[in-house]
Amino acid sequence: RCLRIGILEDLTPTAAARALSSVFNEVGYPKFILSDNGTNFKPIKIALEKAKMSVIWWNSAPMAPWQNGTAERFVQIVKSCLSIYDKKCRSLYDVALRFREVEAIVNARPIIVNERPISAHEFCFHRPPHLIPENNSNFVPIDLN
C-alpha cells in the first residue's frame, strides 16, 4: 500500500482519468482498484473495460466509507502532514513539491517488521528510500553554484 498523490485540475472525469493515467504510466497498471462511488470514476471504469484492461474495479457501498478504510486513513494522514505546512503556496510547483514530500514521509513508514523494518517504498520499488544521506565521512554535498 504505497501512496501516490495526483494533482487534479478539477473534479471532472477527464481530470481524474489524466491523474490516474499519470500514476499508471509511472508505476504500472494495478490488478485491483477500490474506489468510492464518485461520479468522476464511472467513465474511467467503462474506458478500462472497453480497452480490455484486466483491472478489477470495486466500488464501496454508497454512504459506507468504512468499506474503503485504507484510503480514508491515507486521506487523514495526508491532511495531517499537510497541516504542518504554511498555507501560502506560491505556485503549482510548490504544491506538487509538498505532495511529493508527504508521499515520501508516508511511504517511509514500516509495513513489515522482521529483523529490519521494510517500508512501503522499499516494498514497491525494491530499494530503501534514501531521503537523508547517512552519516558518512566521505559524503561531500553537491555544489549547485
From TrEMBL:
<dbReference type="InterPro" id="IPR036397">
    <property type="entry name" value="RNaseH_sf"/>
</dbReference>
<dbReference type="GO" id="GO:0003676">
    <property type="term" value="F:nucleic acid binding"/>
</dbReference>
<dbReference type="InterPro" id="IPR012337">
    <property type="entry name" value="RNaseH-like_sf"/>
</dbReference>
<dbReference type="GO" id="GO:0015074">
    <property type="term" value="P:DNA integration"/>
</dbReference>
<feature type="domain" description="Integrase catalytic">
    <location>
        <begin position="1"/>
        <end position="136"/>
    </location>
</feature>
<dbReference type="InterPro" id="IPR001584">
    <property type="entry name" value="Integrase_cat-core"/>
</dbReference>
<protein>
    <recommendedName>
        <fullName>Integrase catalytic domain-containing protein</fullName>
    </recommendedName>
</protein>
